[in-house]
Amino acid sequence: MDVEETGLVEGENLRHADLRHRKLAGADLRFADLTAACLMGVDLTDASLDHADLSHADLTNAVLAGADLSDACLRRARLRNADLRGARLVNANLCGADFEGADITGADFTHARILGAVR
């Protein structure tokens, strides 16, 4: 996705940003700082979020189908009812994350850290 279309760039500081219900499918948010961001209902289908910091982010009802979250930090992130079908979470830090009601069908959690995660 083109930067002009999203207004977001790789590595951007989006701490505490309110991006709820935005359509960011295919966005390049690698290395972005999304700590405590409000991403409720956001569409991040096929987005690149590898190495992003999503600690304490609220991703309730977010669509992350096919997204790459490899090496991302989702410590204590809220992913309730999120769509993670086919998402790549290889080496992700999911400690304390809340996945209640999330669809994780086909998601790749290889080497992910899940201590204290709720499902």
Describe the structure.
The chain has one helix at residues 3-6. By secondary structure, the chain is largely without helices or strands. It has a domain at 23-101: E3 ubiquitin-protein ligase SopA (Pectate Lyase C-like, 3 Solenoid), CATH 2.160.20.
Keywords:
globular, 119 residues, little secondary structure, 3% helix, Pectate Lyase C-like
Secondary structure layout:
Layout: H1 3-6
CATH 2nd-level architecture of one domain: 3 Solenoid
* Helix residue percentage: under 10%
The CATH C-level class name of one domain: Mainly Beta
N to C succession of SSEs: H
Task: Give a brief description.
This protein has 119 residues and is largely without helices or strands. Helices cover 3% and strands 0% of the residues. It starts with a helix and ends in a 113-residue tail after the last helix.
